[in-house]
Specification:
It is built from no helices and twelve strands. By secondary structure, the chain is mainly β. The protein has one domain: Jelly Rolls (Sandwich), CATH 2.60.120. The strands form three sheets. The chain has a five-stranded antiparallel beta sheet with strand order 2-3-12-6-10, with no helix packed on it. Strands 5, 7, 8, 9 and 11 form a five-stranded antiparallel beta sheet that branches. Strands 1-4 form a two-stranded parallel ribbon. About 30% of the residues are buried.
């Protein structure tokens, strides 16, 4: 089990946009959250091998001191973000912190991206 720190993606991040990624995340890993409260528009993207029955969730919190991340919803359908294959979705809620979670599966090895854009 590893704790995966997010990496700021150079070349994508700029004045109004920031992109973070967690690389080579497995079902045994924990991802550290990112703080993006100043980015009203957020997009969640996952690529890689979902193995057998792999699921990647997107969670967030308004109050990081609670250490409790709740499921976030996809903008296109209002459902909780639970990806079972490579996909990209817009996040509805604007939380203080966002964190991905590989919640199920065996043989999962994925890269997870979150891009945030400031509201104008």
């Amino acid at each position: 089990m590893a704790t995966i720190a997010p990496e700021l993606v150079a070349g994508v991040s700029g004045h109004q946009v920031k992109a973070y990624c967690w690389l080579n995340v497995t079902e045994d890993d924990d991802c550290l959250p990112i703080t993006m409260a100043d980015k009203g528009d957020k997009t969640f993207e996952v690529h890689g091998d979902f193995g057998t029955l792999g699921e990647v969730h997107c969670k967030g919190t308004i109050d990081p001191s609670l250490n409790e991340f709740l499921p976030l919803r996809a903008q296109h359908n209002g459902q909780f973000i639970v990806l079972t294959g490579p996909d990209i979705v817009a996040i509805v809620e604007n939380t203080a912190q966002v964190c991905p979670l590989v919640a199920a599966g065996t043989g999962v090895n994925v890269s997870i991206w979150i891009l945030g854009r400031e509201d104008n």
